[in-house]
Structure prediction request, 221 residues.
Amino acid sequence: TQLLEQSPQFLSIQEGENLTVYCNSSSVFSSLQWYRQEPGEGPVLLVTVVTGGEVKKLKRLTFQFGDARKDSSLHITAAQPGDTGLYLCAEDNYGQNFVFGPGTRLSVLP
Amino acid sequence: DAGITQSPRHKVTETGTPVTLRCHQTENHRYMYWYRQDPGHGLRLIHYSYGVKDTDKGEVSDGYSVSRSKTEDFLLTLESATSSQTSVYFCAISGRLDTQYFGPGTRLTVL
Prediction:
């Protein structure tokens, strides 16, 4: 069974700061997804990364997939209060379903 | 937004009673999933379906059963609810195995 770890577990920063959160696996990803979940709602897909070394940008968010496809990072530039939420990574479990990490809970203070 | 709804959105029930949660999609996606989300555990897969009448167990399937008689509906049943099943339940759909869309969730409290 694949195991996903995310760090840090909690992060509280001031508006305007930069931050990076991490997702690591015990095995090679086939594909990795990043989600953001706001209180009282379901997770919303941000991005899917497939290729080792791949970098994707979504406005102020930069997603990177490690060369060995066992880790990924999400970097947020100039964080805003609207970025507050739970950030989850998930990987494809051998083409059958998905395995989620425990998440990083981000709080951006105005 | 993907067309996925869950009902009910909130439910309070007593230990030992049966409970059925419904997930409905309008996207004609092949795959459907039920997760539960608890503090400190993230999202854990209960059951999933890869087609009509085709289902399989996930990580935390004990005490739960599912049925999928139509492409658009995926039902999760707690045959005899226990307090440990108090949680927020999310349904998700997927047309391919690198993208999931989640419903709004059902908050279940078992007293």
Q: What stands out?
A: The domain at 4-109 of chain A is CATH 2.60.40.10 (Immunoglobulin-like). Chain A has one domain: 4-109. DSSP finds no helices and eleven strands in chain A. The interface with chain B takes residues 1, 31, 33, 35, 40-45, 48, 50, 88, 90, 92, 95-103 of chain A (CB under 8 Å).
